[in-house]
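Technical note accompanying the year-one report. For the benefit of new consortium partners, we illustrate the data format agreed upon in the data management plan: each record pairs a sequence with a C-alpha cell string. No post-processing was applied to the example shown here.
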Amino acid sequence: MIRKAMMTDLDSIMEILQTIIIEMHKDNNFQWDENYPKSKDFANDIEKGDLFVSVRENSVVGFICINRDQPLEYRILKWSAAENEFVIHRMGVSPYYRNTGIGAELIKFADELSISFGVTCLKTDTNSLNTKAQRLFQKSGYNFVGEIWLPGKEKPFFCYEKSLKYLQKKQPLLNWKELLGCMERRSS
C-alpha cells in the first residue's frame, strides 16, 4: 500500500535512509550522506504533501517525493517537455525489501499520480554510480537525457525522463487526486 507520509513516519524513514546510505557507501556511491538528505528535508516534504510511503505489515519500507521542484542544473539539458512535469526526488526502498517490486510500485504510483493531474512528463536524476536506480528507471520506461553536476558532489548525476502522453488516454487505476487530496496548489 502507498499512502501520503505523516510526521509519525519520520523515524522509520530516517532508519531506512541510514541503511541505504551504508549500502550506497559500500558501492562508493556518495549520492546521500550525513549532509543530505536530512530529517528536515523529509519533514518539509511531508508538510507540503509531497512525500509518500510504501507500507508492508504496518511498517514503512519505502518512500518517494513527487513535486514540481527542479534543480537549476536541469536547465542545461534538452528535455522533451518544458512544462507540465513532476519530478521524483528522494526515493528509497529499505534494503531488507529490495527485489520485491516496491521500487517499481513507487514508480508506477508516480506515473498514476502524475496522470491524475494531467502531467505529461516525469523527470528524475541519480548519481552516475547508482546503477540500481538507473536500472529501475530504464526498466520503468525512463529515457536518459544527459548529465549534470550538483554542488558538493564529486561525480555527475544522470538525468532521466518519462513521457506520460501515451498513458494520458488510459484511465489511472485509482483517482489519486481525490484519494489523497494532495498537490492541488501546485497543479495550476
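Partners are asked to follow this layout when depositing records. The chain has five helices and seven strands.
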